[in-house]
Amino acid sequence: MTMTSATMPTTTLAGTDEALLASSALCRQITRRAARNFYHGLKLLPEPKRSRMYALYAYMRLLDDIADEDDGRSHDRRLADLAAWRELTSEVLESRLPEGTGPDIWPAFADLVHRHAIPLHIFESAIAGQRQDLVSTRFETFEQLREYCYRVAGVVGIASVYVWGYEGGQATLDLAIERGVAFQLTNILRDIQSDARGGRIYLPREDLDAAGVTDEQILQGRGGPKFVEMVRFQIARAEASYEKSADLENRISRDSRPTLGAMTEIYRGLLKKIAKDPECILRQRVSLSLLDKVLIASRAKRATWAR
Question: By its UniProt entry, which Pfam families does this protein fall under (predicted)?
Answer without folding.
Answer: SQS_PSY (PF00494)
